[in-house]
Amino acid sequence: MSFIDDDRPQKKTAHEIGADLAMLSVDELKARVELLKTEIARLEAEATRKASGRQAAENFFRS
After folding, report:
1. Could you report the per-residue pLDDT of 11-33, keeping only the tens digit for each?
2. How far apart are CA 60 and CA 63, in angstroms?
3. What 3 state SS string does the chain have?
4. Going by C-beta distance under 8 Å and a sequence separation of 6 or more, which residues neighbour residue 24?
5. What pTM, to 2 d.p., does this model score?
6. Name one Pfam family in it (predicted).
7. In whole angstroms, what is the distance from residue 28 CA to residue 23 CA?
C-alpha cells in the first residue's frame, strides 16, 4: 500500500499577488510563472482586441 496517491486530482494552481512564496517548491514557483505568463498573454490579447474595436468605431464615425 502506497501513501502517495498519484491518481488524486491535482489542486488547481492559483496565485495571489503579494503572497508569501517561502513555502513553495521550485516546481511550484515555475508553475506559477507559467500561469502568470499565460494570463498576461490573455490580458494583452483582450486589450488588443478592444483597442482594435475602438479604433474601428472611431474610424467609422470620422467618415
Report:
1. 666 889 999 999 999 999 999 99
2. 6
3. CCCCCCCCCCCCCCCCCCCCCCCCCHHHHHHHHHHHHHHHHHHHHHHHHHHHHHHHHHHHHHC
4. 32
5. 0.64
6. DUF1192
7. 10
The Cβ of residue 32 has, within 10 Å, a number of other Cβ atoms equal to 16
* Nearest alpha-carbon partner for 18 in 31, 30, 37, 32: 32
The Cα–Cα gap between 60 and 40 comes to: 30
Q: Which residue has the cell 503579494?
A: 18
